Amino acid sequence: MSNPFFKNRGPFLIFDILNFLKINTSSVSTNVEIKDIKDLSSSNNSEITFFHSKKYKELAQKTKASFCITTESLKNELPTSCIPLIVDNVLLSVSKITSIFYPDSVKDDFDDSVNNINETNFKDKVFYGKNVLIGKNVSIGKNCKIGHNTIIEKNVIIGDNCSIGSNTIIRNSLISNNVKVLDNCVIGKHGFGFFPNKNNNLRYPHIGIVIIEENCEIGCGSTIDRGSMSNTVICKNTYLDNQIHIAHNVKIGENSIIAGQVGIAGSTIIGSNVKIGGQAGISGHIKVGNNVEIGGGSGVIKNIPDNTKVMGYPAKNIREFLRDNK
Amino acid sequence: MSNPFFKNRGPFLIFDILNFLKINTSSVSTNVEIKDIKDLSSSNNSEITFFHSKKYKELAQKTKASFCITTESLKNELPTSCIPLIVDNVLLSVSKITSIFYPDSVKDDFDDSVNNINETNFKDKVFYGKNVLIGKNVSIGKNCKIGHNTIIEKNVIIGDNCSIGSNTIIRNSLISNNVKVLDNCVIGKHGFGFFPNKNNNLRYPHIGIVIIEENCEIGCGSTIDRGSMSNTVICKNTYLDNQIHIAHNVKIGENSIIAGQVGIAGSTIIGSNVKIGGQAGISGHIKVGNNVEIGGGSGVIKNIPDNTKVMGYPAKNIREFLRDNK
Amino acid sequence: MSNPFFKNRGPFLIFDILNFLKINTSSVSTNVEIKDIKDLSSSNNSEITFFHSKKYKELAQKTKASFCITTESLKNELPTSCIPLIVDNVLLSVSKITSIFYPDSVKDDFDDSVNNINETNFKDKVFYGKNVLIGKNVSIGKNCKIGHNTIIEKNVIIGDNCSIGSNTIIRNSLISNNVKVLDNCVIGKHGFGFFPNKNNNLRYPHIGIVIIEENCEIGCGSTIDRGSMSNTVICKNTYLDNQIHIAHNVKIGENSIIAGQVGIAGSTIIGSNVKIGGQAGISGHIKVGNNVEIGGGSGVIKNIPDNTKVMGYPAKNIREFLRDNK
């Protein structure tokens, strides 16, 4: 993933990284520079990656990264070009190293860089309401509307012909043409990702962003969290109703319709042309195929193949659901 | 329905309407003026109506409309006084014609007609917080309170002794005496109604409003959408808890109690003295009787008769639910 | 409970209280002063308490209150030092007497005591955004951040190193050190508690507050209601995701993790180290033990013992749930 918003403070020397992880530097012969930390498939030479689950074995075997944070039991899957760095808790170590490269991605305090839109160059370009605030590193296309009390925090790109409602907050997001975001939304804050730790949980960094493609509509009171190591993406012409929650790293395909109060947990992938009824919930880390219909109130806890209709909690084939509940 | 807010741009000549729908004008002898588009029961002479489902056969047989958008298979139900206009997709055609009569009902961008209440006549009449905005065509009764950052957009009538919280947005709504609307609500935006269309869905117009009768209370973070061809109505002394979503065209009877995070889908009719437990969901287009109790977390997917208690997903008689889950 | 925020307008003479409740004063020999109204266990000499359910028999037997609002059938459980005041509806009578002692606890209109933070002493002490409003009787610790458009209404104490997001409203709350409250939350409004009454429900007073202990995080769009006769408490290092609703009098133990869109109904007690999956709902007045895991989408309708994993609606042991749904 190429990250457009969070500034990479690297490169860092590999010995410094090893010291930080409390790994003996003798395992590495030369103190090379490391430019970035990325996932297995997108990382390259002079970058560091991570490998924490057998599920990703095939990606691990092909990684081009020079170093990989992993465990004793997984290290043998890596190619010889990639030096394993053995740790006890891979994700915790990744979190720490990511925080060093991208310190701005951990904190999510309010953006104090904003100014009233009246005092910015957007004042002649955007059609806007009262008390609109605009942060640094914001770009807004032609013919856009931004409602009252809305805050476009730093790191936001908005395309042409977009309509943003009132009382909405957007940060770290890329919004394409013809998108409507209604009132009282929060888009682009960090996800609910942290390491539980007695008395003081440890937040992990969220260097992903939110991408909303063209012609989408996001209903009132919805929240869309940005990704941790990848992005949260709503593909084109997908409509979300009110009070929907989309967690970090979720991808939703194009031409999908998601009714009110639906929740989609982290890292789940939803296909195209999917219809999800009101109040349905989708577990994290699962895959819902294309052309799937999920009945209102369903709880989806496993993968759903293409072209199926499901309902229930746990969700099953809708014919089975209706038969069982006659 | 007499619509107090959206301006009717009619009359239009029937030949213009036919051309717009790509119907041959030879089916109509005289180029009469059409004053409005309404549903089967409320339409009159010189107005156009629509008939798209056998469910409405009895209403169709009695309609007083001069013209009716319908299908080949339904047209014979209409009285001879009503000329059928045959189309492929009734609702899509209705949407287009409604947009011509009521172009303002399609868009829901932020209301740029608002002014700070300090600069309006309400400044001596209403007890208000900081940064309160008031749109055009707003009326507010005696002894009302409006909290900070709240936006009363255009087309709102508020009765006496009402208390509106902070950060709330209201538009296209009629609010009776002694109503409380708490913080962070959005009331009166268009419903989640549109025609799915590859790459670019087509929104249909929402010419209905939200009506909240006297002594109601609406909890924090709730959303109540206005109706499409009819109104969304909350009858007197009904209380809604926090984070509730009421979709377009829903009617809720009086003296009802609706707990937190409940969702009611479009066009559903709820009776009087109904109690709905937290997080319950009610499907669209169904009817819940009077004196019904719906257990928390239930999913109601069919009509519920008067005086029954239901629970479960799908909701069934509560005794049955408890027996099945011993 | 010692209440730090709502002013006690007492003492009141017992004869005045009896007259108000329409009880014959002949049942009481001396017109003593009553200083406060409290629950069975915390009330003392010269105070009034209430006893409305056999469930509380043991507490009733030990109460130190001088008077107790109760029923004919329960009065014999009280010690001889406590004079019973017999009424038809205990809670309704308690509500009325509490309203006399604490009239400010019934109303929840917007706080008109607020000023822009620029005009307060906090301007040099707090790091704040645009349009921040601060009410009376507010205290804010060192190194705090408060986002744009946020309203800290009256009766709020905030500790050190706290970060409050934008568009958030807080009242009647005690927030400890290192707490993060994200955007668009409403914390400390009255709960959804009232006596249903044809045509005009009667709100009961909420003299409790919200207490959020150190190191907690509250996600975007969440609502936490203050208690009625006791407090709503989130213990230390507990994290709440987005769009969560916590009702009045709920207690949540420390080190707990609560995922998006969860709802917890009134007076429920949740233990420590509890994990609750997204969209789960917990009924009111139940007890969830320590180290419990509740699967996403579950509906918990009875007590859950320590160290158990449950899932389903109604929630049952997770092994049973998975077996039944193979």
Assign the CATH topology of the largest domain in chain A.
Answer: UDP N-Acetylglucosamine Acyltransferase, domain 1
Terminal-residue CA separation of chain A: 49 Å
Uncertain ranges of chain A: none
Counting DSSP H or I runs of 4 or more residues, the number of helices of chain A is 4
The CATH architecture term of the largest domain in chain A is 3 Solenoid
How many β-strands of chain A, per DSSP?
37
* Cα radius of gyration of chain A in angstroms: 22 Å
Describe the strand arrangement of the main beta sheet of chain A, using strand numbers.
8-11-14-17-22-25-28-31-34-36-37
Which percent band covers the strand fraction of chain A?
25-35%
Report what the structure shows.
3 copies of one chain form a homotrimer. Chain A is mainly β. The first copy, chain A, has 2 domains: 12-105, 3-Layer(aba) Sandwich (Udp-n-acetylmuramoylalanyl-d-glutamate--2,6- Diaminopimelate Ligase, Chain: A, domain 1), CATH 3.40.1390; 115-324, 3 Solenoid (UDP N-Acetylglucosamine Acyltransferase, domain 1), CATH 2.160.10. Chain A contains 4 helices and 37 strands. In chain A, the strands form 6 sheets. In chain A, strands 8-11-14-17-22-25-28-31-34-36-37 form an 11-stranded mixed sheet. Chain A has a 10-stranded mixed sheet with strand order 7-9-12-15-18-23-26-29-32-35, with no helix packed on it. The A-C interface holds A 108-110, 112, 114, 116, 131, 133, 149, 151, 167, 169, 184, 186, 189, 192, 194, 196-201, 221, 223, 225, 243, 245, 247, 261, 263, 265, 279, 281, 283, 299, 301, 313-314 and C 127, 129-131, 145-149, 163, 165-167, 178, 182-184, 215, 217, 219-221, 236-237, 239, 241-243, 254-255, 257, 259-261, 277-279, 296-297, 312-313, 325.
